[in-house]
Design a protein that fits this description.
There is one protein chain. The protein has about 500 residues and is of the alpha/beta class. Among the domains are: about 190 residues, FAD/NAD(P)-binding domain (3-Layer(bba) Sandwich), CATH 3.50.50.60; about 100 residues, no CATH class. Helix content is about 40%, strand content about 20%. The protein contains 18 helices and 20 strands. A seven-stranded mixed sheet has the order 8-7-16-17-18-15-19. A five-stranded parallel sheet has the order 10-2-1-14-20, with helices on one face. A three-stranded antiparallel sheet has the order 5-9-6. A hairpin with a 2-residue loop joins strand 11 and strand 12. Helix 3 crosses helix 4, helix 7 packs antiparallel against helix 8 and helix 11 packs antiparallel against helix 12. It is globular. Bound molecules: flavin-adenine dinucleotide. Flavin-adenine dinucleotide (FAD) binds next to helix 1, strand 15, helix 16 and helix 18.
Length: about 500
């Protein structure tokens, strides 16, 4: 019997996971990637012995990766190891308050009681509600295709209704958090979860409070060797399952005849397969690979998630007060989000995130006695800002703020510097407007507006990754790979 063939365009985390799953299902899989390496937004570089993960830094829901290895019947430990963190994040406020977000909920509640006068039981109840919301309602959204009629006849769908209250839909995350906590600092801390999928807590529904479940109840983790080891493990698994990779191969076109996919054009050559999975942003897939401008324009109208400006600094000093994940909050969070989403301009007092992997692996991530700082602020998706100018302004603001709060002249410790901004994110990975997580979740209907994992226009065309259902971020991209490969497998069984 002829082997089933599939082409995957792009080797981001979702493309890699889809390739590994399809190969396990017996497909002959070819992956075409425009860059010279796999991983997409998950990438790394090294300079003067400082190692930097360029994109994602927060690792949650490791069970989603374990699922792929279990599905492929391969021992995950031989590919990928990770450890649970005791502290999810360290929060710094301008008035010198420091809050440790311990992953032990009782310790975290005690910390919030001591530092911010919160009621410990209220914190524990909030996290319990988040868990309920995630396990009942969230699980339906992330495991099923919302555009398949059948999904609504599953028991998970019925269960989804028991997980939430009306206020989770009618209130935005900020209003919900404001009514849950006493102190504005706690509200700000829990509002931050909207940024985990590039959204605005003053717009996005309180459903997003379920994200705190992942970090606190399920846990926050660190992958040995940093975030790139996630892409590395999936790549090695895909190779083991027989997937063929073609790097430096930018796909030019998806071949379609009578609304049926026939293959792709790459390097002016036609390569045929009746299943094509695009891991490329859905907007660019329609615009550049299908020349379907009508559909591309419809997708373009959906609001994009935020983007980021990142400075990778090799720091020639160790900072005992800092942890793996650190946040330096802005004084006016609402204004900051207005700038990101409404005015699409830079805010003069941005919240700063610093990730330092040498805190976890001092021997390998930075030279002895030094630290690798990944310093990020949330910014609007790449629209009207001139980044060549903006980068210098932001650098100044960030250095002033960090020097003020850490009471040291940070600029004097910078030994190496590299920069990533929205325009580069867009060109590196073909992510429309450089958005980190595809479309935003600011609308109550976001989950339903997101492009499905299959095409209604072209038979045999499927989509995976951050720009499609169920959304951006590594855990959801892995879920999208699972949904898509299941859809392909079911469709093949029918024929
Ligand atoms: C700075 C930053 C910070 C982030 N922080 C986090 C975090 O802490 N935690 C988290 O979970 N997530 C985070 N994210 C989001 C996460 O990285 C993404 O959601 C996820 O990696 C997207 O994976 P993907 O498979 O959808 O696509 P991508 O990684 O975008 O990969 C798409 C691939 O397609 C390739 N491609 C594009 N066009 C073509 C073509 N024509 N032919 C062939 N190949 C093509 C690209 O080169 C790329 O390799 C962050 C992202 C960024 C950029």
């Amino acid at each position: 019997m002829k082997k089933k063939e599939a082409i995957v365009i792009g080797s981001g985390v979702a493309g890699l996971a889809t390739a590994a799953r399809l190969a396990t299902l017996g497909f002959s899989v070819n992956v075409f990637e425009k860059n010279d390496n796999y991983g997409g937004k998950i990438a790394l570089f090294e300079t003067n012995s400082f190692k930097f993960d360029t994109g994602p830094s927060l690792f949650t829901a490791p069970s989603f990766i374990e699922d792929i290895f279990a599905f492929a019947n391969e021992p995950i430990d031989e590919y990928f190891t990770y450890k649970k963190l005791a502290t999810a994040c360290k929060y710094f406020y301008e008035d010198d308050t420091i809050v440790n977000a311990y992953t032990n909920n009782k310790l975290f509640a005690k910390e919030l009681n001591e530092k911010l006068n919160e009621d410990e039981n209220q914190i524990l109840n909030y996290l319990k509600t988040s868990e309920n919301l995630y396990t009942k309602t969230g699980n339906f959204f992330i495991n099923f295709s919302l555009q398949k009629f059948k999904s609504y006849f599953s028991t998970q769908f019925t269960k989804a209704f028991t997980g939430f209250k009306l206020k989770h839909i009618t209130q935005n995350l900020h209003t919900y958090n404001k009514s849950s906590f006493r102190n504005a600092k706690t509200v700000q801390l829990f509002n931050r979860y909207a940024t985990y999928n590039g959204s605005n807590p003053y717009k996005a529904s309180a459903m997003l409070s379920l994200i705190s479940h992942l970090e606190h109840n399920d846990g926050t983790y660190y992958p040995t060797g940093g975030m790139f080891s996630i892409a590395d493990a999936l790549y090695k698994l895909a190779l083991k399952k027989g997937v063929q990779f073609h790097f430096n191969n930018s796909v030019e076109r998806i071949i379609v005849t009578n609304n049926r996919v026939k293959g792709i054009v790459v390097n002016n050559q036609n390569i045929y397969a009746d299943t094509v999975v695009s891991n490329v942003d859905a907007y660019f897939t329609y615009k550049n690979l299908l020349l379907n401008f009508n559909k591309a324009n419809k997708i373009k109208k959906i609001e994009r998630s935020s983007s980021a400006l990142i400075f990778y600094w090799g720091i020639n000093k160790e900072f005992a007060t800092l942890d793996l994940h650190n946040i330096f909050f802005s004084d006016n969070y609402q204004k900051e989000f207005e700038h990101i989403f409404k005015y699409k301009t830079l805010y003069t007092d941005p919240t700063i995130y610093i990730n330092i992997t040498s805190k976890q692996e001092p021997e390998t991530q930075a030279p002895k006695g030094k630290e690798n700082w990944f310093v990020m602020i949330n910014v609007p998706s790449n629209d009207k800002i001139n980044w060549d100018i903006a980068v210098n302004d932001c650098r100044k603001i960030i250095l002033e703020k960090l020097s003020r709060i850490l009471k040291q002249n940070i600029a004097s410790f910078i030994e190496t510097e590299n920069i990533l901004h929205p325009k580069l994110i867009e060109s590196n990975t073909a992510s429309y407007l450089g958005s980190l997580y595809g479309t935003s979740s600011n609308s109550k209907f976001s989950a339903f507006l997101r492009h499905p994992n299959f095409s209604n226009n072209y038979k045999g065309l499927y989509f995976v990754g951050g720009s499609v259902h169920p959304g951006g971020g590594i855990p959801l991209c892995l879920k999208s790979a699972e949904i898509t490969s299941n859809l392909i497998s079911k469709s093949k069984q029918k024929h």
